[in-house]
């Protein structure tokens, strides 16, 4: 029964999240999530304001769970969701738009210092965003299974341009500047933040933002602020938890505990929880599942 997944998804741990199996944008898509309130607001006021509709359509408990906790893509009725439709290590339901997720070819196209200089062929694209030491370049190399496609560096903040990588000659992975690196001048941080936001607000071919969150550390305010900004501006996103294999020394939380804490901070701000998925570029966790999720978003975007 679908409802027994509630405790596993709301309190994730490695043994429970990996038991699932699955079958082999700015076009106002229905996978656009509704942002409820600012993260800085108190949960009590959020829930109070959300509980005032004069008439509420009665729906099944399973459908309510699917609509609020799971990410149900276009073409799926929440009442029809079953356990085997959920991707392992995620809250993402596989729908009819999921298709060929294999990456056969990837080529670097260009680096742009301004959004208006980005490619103008209107191919769908996914933007990778995250703190500068979150493992963004490693994730890109991991997805395309090629070393050094995206430059990795021990110096956070080295990527300062919008980099486009063409996949299968049909869609883009976009590597955006990392945010939150401590050694960059404040003026440079503001400049990069400004042009990144300009890209999000004006890029009509953007299907979704993959917001990378380091699961090896507790939730960071800068990540919550970024999610807050994307939500308030109605920009579709998926939380991609990186470094899920990594456990910090000492008394730090495990990755699954950090993911749970992050979700608790986010959950009150969305009527439907944004899609999220666990990954590790070291162990291979989540690669095929993330690409399948991207395929269904991309295929829907292509067919609109």
Automatic annotation (TrEMBL):
The entry's keywords: GTP-binding, Magnesium, Metal-binding, Nucleotide-binding
Classification via InterPro entries: G_ENGB_dom, GTP-bd, GTP-bd_ribosome_bio_YsxC, P-loop_NTPase
Alphabetized GO MF terms: GTP binding; metal ion binding
PROSITE patterns named in the record: G_ENGB (PS51706)
CDD domains referenced in this protein's UniProt entry, alphabetically: YihA_EngB
Family statement: Belongs to the TRAFAC class TrmE-Era-EngA-EngB-Septin-like GTPase superfamily. EngB GTPase family.
PANTHER family: MSS1/TRME-RELATED GTP-BINDING PROTEIN, PROTEIN, PUTATIVE, EXPRESSED-RELATED
UniProt protein name: EngB-type G domain-containing protein
Organism: Castilleja foliolosa
């Amino acid at each position: 029964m679908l409802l027994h997944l509630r405790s596993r998804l709301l309190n994730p741990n490695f043994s429970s999240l990996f038991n699932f199996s699955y079958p082999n944008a700015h076009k106002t898509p229905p996978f656009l999530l509704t942002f409820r309130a600012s993260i800085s607001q108190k949960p009590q006021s959020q829930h109070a304001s959300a509980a005032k509709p004069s008439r509420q359509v009665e729906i099944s408990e399973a459908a309510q769970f699917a609509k609020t906790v799971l990410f149900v893509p276009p073409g799926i009725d929440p009442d029809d969701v079953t356990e085997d439709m959920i991707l392992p290590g995620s809250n993402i339901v596989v729908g009819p738009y999921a298709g060929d997720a294999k990456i056969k070819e990837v080529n670097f196209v260009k680096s742009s210092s301004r959004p208006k200089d980005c490619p103008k062929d209107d191919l769908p694209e996914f933007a990778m965003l995250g703190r500068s030491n979150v493992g963004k370049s490693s994730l890109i190399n991991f997805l395309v299974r090629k070393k050094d496609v995206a430059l990795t560096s021990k110096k956070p903040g080295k990527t300062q341009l919008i980099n486009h990588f063409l996949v299968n000659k049909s869609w883009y992975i976009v590597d955006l500047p990392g945010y939150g690196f401590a050694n960059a001048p404040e003026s440079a941080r503001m400049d990069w933040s400004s042009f990144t936001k300009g890209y999000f607000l004006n890029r009509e071919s953007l299907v979704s933002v993959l917001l990378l969150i380091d699961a090896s550390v507790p939730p960071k305010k800068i990540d919550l602020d970024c999610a807050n900004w994307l939500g308030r501006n109605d920009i579709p996103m998926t939380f991609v938890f990186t470094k899920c294999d990594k456990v910090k020394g000492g008394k730090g939380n495990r990755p699954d505990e950090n993911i749970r804490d992050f979700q608790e901070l986010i959950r009150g701000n969305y009527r439907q929880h944004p899609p999220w998925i666990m990954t590790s570029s070291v162990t291979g966790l989540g690669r095929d599942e993330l690409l399948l999720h991207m395929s269904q978003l991309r295929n829907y975007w292509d067919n609109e």
